[in-house]
Write a structure and sequence with these properties.
Flavoprotein-like_sf, 34% helix, FMN_Rdtase-like_dom, 5 strands, oxidoreductase activity, alpha/beta, 6 helices, FMN, Flavodoxin family protein
Length: 179
């Protein structure tokens, strides 16, 4: 059965290492017959959550006029969500965190989804990437019935293109194919 896959690429660099792994995941998922869309968060205008309370105190939609509502709508509609981020100071980057914070108004509607996490970092000590995945899981732990299906922890990659030719590429492709 075909699934609707949404890939959220938080890389600020098109063709960066985490973005390249997104492309491999997408290739595998498409070859398996799934409908796949990749969004570059860097191309979206997503403002910080203002903590105004409109969404949870008065059940109003978020008053901010930016691209967050469009992205969140796609998250709600997806069967599978891939969250990919480069690691900055041992955690996810601001682009991904800002989106997560902005889901506040509708996060209860992001339920029953399959999640895949992709993170890339220059550091070679694998345990240093744990905080990144802990942060992503902090988001999914707030959702109803999330299913973590796979994780790619690509270490030792910093400069654009360093992930090419490494086993992470095949891992991303195979993970996408298994969706």
């Amino acid at each position: 059965m075909s699934k609707k896959v949404l890939i959220l690429s938080a890389s600020p660099r098109k063709g960066g290492n985490s973005d390249t792994l997104c492309d491999q995941f997408m290739k595998g998922a498409q070859e398996a017959g799934n409908e796949v869309e990749k969004l570059f968060l860097r191309e979206k205008t997503i403002h910080y959550c203002l903590g105004c309370g409109a969404c949870f105190n008065s059940k109003q939609p978020c008053p901010q006029q930016d691209d967050a509502a469009e992205v969140i709508e796609k998250m709600i509609a997806a069967d599978v969500i891939v969250m990919a981020t480069p690691v900055y100071f041992y955690t996810l980057n601001a682009q991904m965190k800002t989106l997560i914070d902005r889901t506040c108004a509708r996060y209860t509607e992001i339920s029953g989804k399959d999640f895949y996490f992709i993170a890339t970092m220059a550091e070679t000590e694998l345990e240093k990437i744990d905080r990144t995945f802990d942060s992503l899981r902090g988001f999914t732990d707030c959702l109803e019935n999330p299913h973590e299906k796979g994780v790619i922890a690509a270490t030792g990659v910093w400069q654009k293109g360093e992930v090419n030719g490494l086993p992470y590429m095949k891992q991303a492709y195979e993970m996408g194919k298994a969706v």
